[in-house]
Specification:
Largest sheet: 8 strands, mixed
Radius of gyration: 19 Å
Helix content: 25-40%
Number of helices: 9
Amino acid sequence: MKAVILAGGRGTRISEESRIKPKPMVEIGGKPILWHIMKLYSHYGFREFIICCGYKGQMIKEYFVHYDMYQADTTFFLNSQQRLLHKSKAEPWKVTLANTGLDTLTAGRILRVRDYIGDEPFLLTYGDGVSDVDIGKLIEFHKEQGRIATITTVQPSGRFGALQMNHETSQVLRFKEKARTDQAWVNAGFMVMNPQVFDYLGDGSEMLEEGPFERLAMEGQMSAYKHEGFWMPMDNIRDKAYLEKLWESGKVPWRVWQ
């Protein structure tokens, strides 16, 4: 199963960093937050990634072009322009970097990587949030529910969007992104999608979290996987500082890998 990561937005709420780099490349503990997300999936055995690039996407591509060199000691032969890597620690990842457009909305970004996904279920998340969610249990839950889409839901403070769901069946009844601040369960990303989701994306001119998710919810085709562990999006510079503080303390809730 492939993991699709939405990494093309402008990240305007963290403009202190996003002026010079795409938001998924903002670092926590010396590594891009994108790397932290990929490490979570890799820990659970999912090592094939499709990254939807957009704003400053060339920086993401440059990172992976030189990734093996960043992870290893390197000897350069300047007269022959050759290099020799020593003790490489590069992960066994297959990474497809797709240019999905500068201002493309999230539904459109997924449509543009459809050929790379193929006709099979896939994982999907945003390139700016970390969690200790158990991806294996999430997939098992998705299969048990038998619906087209499953989203991971959490109960953070009220500055996030809200959804309504049937707590007995885990079916999402209504989805509203950043609707009200007095509802508890919100979309944390870390989703599982069946290929039928493409039928709900239209021409890609909507945000995934608006029309497509609302239609899935209204037709009873979206499930909510309740996650009571750690989740933190990096929406602004304050969030970055908090995540950095956790990393420096050595108490890193999302670092489930060794």
